[in-house]
Every structure is written in C-alpha cells, then in structure tokens.
Amino acid sequence: LNELEKLNKELQAYKSKIRKLRHRIKDLSSSIAEVDRRIAGVKKELDTQRQWLKKKVQSLQINRNLSHRSDKTLFDPLVVLASAEDMSQAIRRWYYFQALARYDYDVMKGYLKNLEKLNRQKKKKEKLLTVLKKEKDKLIEAERVLRIQRQKKVQFLASLARKEKLYKQMISELKATERKIYRMLKEAERKRTTLSGFRRMKRHLPWPVKGSVALPFGSYIDPKYKTRVFRNGIYIKAEEDSPVRAVYDGEVIFADWIEGYGKVVILRHGEGYYTVYGGLSEITVKKADVVSRGDILGRVGESGVLNEPALYFELRFRGKPLNPIYWLSVKK
Description:
By secondary structure, the chain is of the alpha+beta class. Helix content is 52%, strand content 20%. It has helices at 2-66, 77-82, 87-162, 164-189; strands spanning 211-215, 218-221, 228-231, 234-238, 243-245, 250-258, 262-270, 273-283, 290-291, 296-300, 310-317, 320-322. Strands 1, 4, 5, 6, 7, 8, 9, 10, 11 and 12 form a 10-stranded antiparallel β-sheet that branches. A two-stranded antiparallel sheet has the order 2-3. Strand 6 (250-258) and strand 7 (262-270) form a beta hairpin. Mean pLDDT is 80; it is low at 69-75.
C-alpha cells in the first residue's frame, strides 16, 4: 500500500503542476490578447495622426508655391496681424496663430509618443511570447512524465493482482485505515454541535459531483482471490478536476491525505451523520471550516481503484457506513 500511496502522490503532484501550468498559459494568452488590442488601438491613432500630418505637409507645400507669387504678403503672419482693423482683432488673430502652433506641436508630440508606446507594446508582446513558449515546453514535459507515472501505476496494480500475498496485505492495510476513520468519527461524536436536519434529507441529498456510479456500496467477492471485501461507499465516475460539493450543511473535521483514500474531506452534519469525500486532486477547505450545502470542498482526482477520474463517497451514521444511494436524490 505504501508503494501505491507513493505513486498516487506523485501522480497528484504532476497533475497539480499541469493544472497550474495550464492556468499560467491561459493567463499569458489573455495578456498577449490584451497587448494585441492595445497595439491595434495605438496603430489606429497613429494612422489618424499620419493622415493629418500628410495633409499638413501638403498644405505647407501649397503655401510655399503660392509664396512666390506677387501677392505673397497675403501669407505673411505679420501682414495678417498688421492688417487688422483694430487692436481687438489683432489680438484675436495673434491667439489664433498661437493656437495653431500649439495644435501642430501637440499633434507631433502625440505622434512621437504613440510611436514609443507602439514600440514598448511590441517588446512586451515579444517577452510574453517567450515566457509562453517556455511554459508550454514545461507543460509538454510534465504531461510526458505524468504518462510515465500512470503507466508505472498500471504496471504496479497488474503485478499486485498477480501476487496474492501483497494483494491481501493491501486489503488489510485498507481495513486498518477504515478503522482509523471510524475512531476519528467516534471521537468527533463526543463534541457537541448545533447542526441538525440531516436525517430528514433521505432521498433528497444532492449528488456531490456530476457523474454516474462506477462501483456500488456493499460486499463483493474478488473474482481472482475469492476474498470477500466490503466497500463502505460508492465510486462516482466524473470529469477530472470537476468540483466536489457538500451534500448538506456541515463542519469540516478532516481535510488531508489518508492512506488508501488519497486526499480526503470529512464533514460532520450533526445527529451522528458524516459524509466522506475521497480521491480528491485538490482540497479547497480546511479543518474547522463551516460549509453550506453546495459549497465546493475540492476537485475530482484519479481513483486508485478505477485508475481514472472518480470520487469516492461515503455516508456514515455514528461511524457505521450507510449506502449513499438510499440518501441521494433520484436522477431524472
């Protein structure tokens, strides 16, 4: 069981790494898209400014050509000012020339500023693309190692199935873990709680995850070794990393790793009722947290039994396992 636990932990570690890398790649892609939008905006502004500057140059060219005519004084600002009918008109014309000069200066300044901004955004995009490539390379490597680890687990389980002694030892260790959980629940019973109402929820509890039952509750005989084994809960096949939710209001009395169960959350609901959520890839609550029905407790991981994504779900009353199917709502 220790070897299997080690393989499961390694698998969970790489899956967690892959999940973080995918989030990182998604964030980087969003950042690059935002930079692209900014670049497009700056280019649009530059295009407008270029059109204005082009017209300005054409206007200056026309004025230069006209200045060679005999009436060139018409284009001399001093002549325009001197020809004012009164001081008020002369001042207005002076302010007008100043405003034109400032506007020309502001347009040129804005144009140069946008060129600098465009250059900065392009450099930023290049850096983001470099980081994105590195993260994608890391993801490819992590996925490669994950495939290797999964193959190791498959080979280990296959070898375990061929060795009756090791198989029976694993079953014995799992039973020891179950007794540990039983003692944990009995210890929790000694503490008072105001939680209640769970017993009225029979046949009305929501499913902890979207999926279907892959392995049922109860006693079964191993076909190879003819060993009678009792399954205290059900395995619900589900999408990997899909959210696992509390089926009823409760208090978190355990949120950690347990041998044979993987990452586990145990909720106390009062009146002697408990629910157990095992095989999680991630736990999002901590011990002593108070949760409500529907709150996310974690995410679905890869089941050690099915060797594919599934949630292991138990329902217990005063430490003893009950068949969850009789408590969960009937799917329509």
